[in-house]
Amino acid sequence: MSKQSTSTGSGASSSGSGVGSTNVSGASPANTATGTAVFGVTGEAVQFSIDVQGAVIRLSVLQYSVVLNGLTGSIDLSTACGSKISMNDQTKELSMRDEHRNELVMNAAGIQLTSEGSITLNAGGPVTLSGLSIAASAETSLALEGASSAKLSSSAQTEVKGAMVMIN
What we know:
Elements: E1 5-8, E2 21-27, E3 32-39, E4 44-53, E5 56-61, E6 64-69, E7 74-78, E8 84-88, E9 93-97, E10 103-107, E11 110-114
């Protein structure tokens, strides 16, 4: 089956090959196109809209959207449940956020991972943390444990503090 399209008004039209058919009609203003696309074996109809505002193109299908912004050099992908992936050349940032408010942000300052819930790292091999300085803190308790051995060392001063320090 080949893709078919029709266009009315001053909107856009599409054509090409593939499974499905597309009907596109122009709407006011002239840089907006809406239509119905029929794809797949079931012939399910999907409503879509394409809106072009200068250097910005927004494609929406149901509650999903893709925004290409030539002014900021950004691409945003959004889902119906609120998940979003954003890439921005102007801010030089990549971010991912889900509907549970978990977020990953990568930019010139580094990588920030935020979660309202737990964060778990699992590896089949060694996990290595290295940096100029590493700080770990916990609001209630901190436990570091090695199944066969554990070592705390420094080539400079080593300090162990607490209201009560128990060794063995």
